[in-house]
Design a protein that fits this description.
This protein is α/β, with parallel strands linked by helices. About 40% of the residues lie in helices and about 15% in strands. It has helices at about 5-20, 35-40, 50-60, 90-105, 115-120, 125-130, 130-145, 150-160, 180-190, 200-215, 250-260, 275-285, 315-325, 330-335, 345-350; strands spanning about 75-80, 165, 170, 195-200, 220-230, 235-245, 265-270, 290-295, 325-330.
Length: about 350
Amino acid sequence: MIRTMHRYCAALTVVILSACSGLPNRDANEPSVSTSSAATLASWNDTAAKRSIVDFVTLVTTPESKDFVPRADRVAVFDNDGTLWPEQPASVQLVFALQRVKTVAARHPEWKRQEPFRSILRGNLKNIAASGDAGSMKVLAAAHAGMTSDQFAALVHEWFDSASDPRFNRPYADLAYQPMLELLAYLRANGFRTYLVTGSDVEFVRDVAQRVYGIPPEQVIGSTVKYKYSQTNGAVSLTRLAQVDNLVDGAAKPLAIDRVIGRRPVIAFGNADGDVPMLEWTAAGDGPRFAALLHHTDDDREYAYDRTAKSGKLDKGLDEAGAKGWLVVDMKDDWNTVFKPDSAATAAAQAN
């Protein structure tokens, strides 16, 4: 978040005075931030959270502002699980991996004696759920070893077409948070490139990122498994191995961002302590920066958890946000809608 509120006020005053004076017109190639764009954040209540987002975007995209950020530098990074869609009671990737373990268990009799597979097959999921991205990546790698990249992508795509969340009785791909979808669209309308930075398997997330979030595959940064390159009778293939290559969580997030993007983000949005290094690194850059955390406070419409959660824990992050002036979005108070309307339910209601 911008470092002090008085910088907001001073810079916004300059912008307003410039618009009313004889200063040069804005760059013809640089669109202004329109009120209609701000209005597209319709699922956000008119609270300080929404106003701070709009004020910041206005500030960094107005050419007359001393805090103007050129379009090439407008990078916004988002965590996925718990930030753009639910991560409770288990991450979507973990649900996918656990179902796959049961499907292929007959081919792996050794799993009956090996953890965490032994516990999974017995229905004891507490330990694996609490192991977070590291645990789910280990299971995912083992359960899909031997698949080519194309085979894995097809399997993930097929799963997302049919799998549903048991609590909300909706496909997982329909459970993206509507306010965050609006925020992503709002930022892109104002010249930002939006990236996903996730501890989940990058290939797993890439399959849905475009259709759910409007984020292309090349703008997804995530954990990876090891692959083997082979060529047999002229046919070339990349085959997944049962080994995790790189886990993108905690301090590994800013490292991965720097390696893939090569620019320090202007905006970073997360929801858990594992996202704190990404926010710290973003906020430490020169010029205007915006760091935000989503606080899950709505047990009726979604889930409520923070400091004592086994997964998705938000403890250190809350303390740092208070000390450093990061934005904390309160799901219950700042959002008037959590999920986009259920098209099937809406159609049924209209039919009646």
